[in-house]
From TrEMBL:
Name of the protein in question: AAA family ATPase
Coiled-coil features, chain-numbered ranges: none
Domain called AAA+ ATPase: residue spans: 50-186
Shown residues within the full chain: 137 to 405 of 580
Organism taxonomic ancestry: Bacteria, Bacillati, Bacillota, Bacilli, Bacillales
Similarity field: In the C-terminal section; belongs to the peptidase M41 family.
Record bears the keyword DNA-binding: no
Amino acid sequence: MKQSVSKAKPLPSISLADVGGIQGEMKDEIMQTLSILKEPERALQMGLKPPKGILLYGPPGTGKTLLAQAIAKELGATFFSTSGSSFNEMFVGVGASRVRSLFQNARKQKPAVVFIDEVDALAGKRKQHGGEESEKTLTELLVQLDGGHSNDGILFIAATNRKDMLDDAFLRPGRIDFSFHVPLPDMKGRKEIIEIHTRNRKLAENVMCSLENLAESTSGFSGADLQSLFETASRRAVQNGQKCIMKEDIDFALDRTVLGSSTRALQDA
Ligand code: ATP
């Protein structure tokens, strides 16, 4: 039996500058939301209620977890992170009691961000979700999200690849106030992500000069794919005793990543 689902982590070291591809309207909305959360009294004077819950949705590996960590860092909040599947227990009441203790722990360490990844495993539509036990766990989550003033100083962030699977009651304003779509990065986003993941790596001159081309040729890659690409290239360079990443390492890693994504797509089909 899993013993604990929530881990309070020290302040994440990830900042918004580490998340690439957050642009335009979404960036503005996130910045606005953060400024309200940083100065809730000022917002209240303007008749604005600070948001309690945020949903991040989009394909796997696009940086939803990263963004949640960066938001926690911006707010100087303790980060409680867990996955929706860790509440699925066959024993009566265990899931609900885990939800309760997650929020109780967060209330002891305000300001706090409570992050639940794969929230569809916990807050899926009740009819499809099925099972009395899952329903009790979801009901407990709704009760905790409705905690009123006891939730002041707590921001709930949920992430999913399947927004369409979520229960309407969970998505109700007051529980989830903002939903942000985190899509696969476009060309500009990939360029930013490539810059982030090459910051601390030594690149050969011809690799440095071709990063823009790499951004162009990696359409369909997620941030996680790009991160993995540079990890693979670095590993190969180290194995070969090189001082920097060369064009051949990138080509090798590209083949691997493209192969990996198509195998995943076949397995998912
Ligand atoms: P999942 O839906 O599978 O949980 P996710 O959207 O939460 O995925 P992350 O776990 O945040 O994705 O991303 C995994 C890793 O990929 C990150 O730790 C980071 O190294 C890299 N990454 C993903 N997206 C980005 C991004 N937008 N900017 C920079 N790095 C990224």
